[in-house]
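Suppose you are handed a protein chain with no further information: no name, no annotation, nothing but its sequence. What can you learn? This example shows the usual starting point.
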Amino acid sequence: MFRATTLFIVGIWAAAPFADAALGESKAQLQARYGRPGESFRIAGEDALEYRYKTFFVIVSFVGGKSAMETFVHQDGKTPLVAQEIEAFLNISFGSKRWHKAADIPLWTLGGRDRNSWTAIAAYYPKSPQMMSPALGVMTTTYAKTHGYWPKI
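A reasonable first move is to predict its three-dimensional structure. Written in structure tokens, the prediction is:
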């Protein structure tokens, strides 16, 4: 069941637009942060690993050996993320840099208000019909643009 849930979440990530670890970290750095990875698979042609961290699954996609997209979901697959958890994941993703939240949708950007200055984006979908579980995702803007996840706001 766990593998099916993981693969479903990964499939949704690959099909529709959507954070904890510092984006850009290597597999060794992520292992130091989260411990040994569990499942490994491919997402959109890239290596991906799944970690268990506290009460979360952290699914990480790598480009060139560095973290480019990270997804966070409670291990029970049902519990929504609370604002403090989302804030903590965003703070870990890029240290003390300030994320900007969109006014009308659960989307955060890093790097300023101008789309050309963004370095990362994050989105949370607590009740999306496409998602099996409430999930938060963070990715670099390069990854978002390359994989068709760039927001249309």
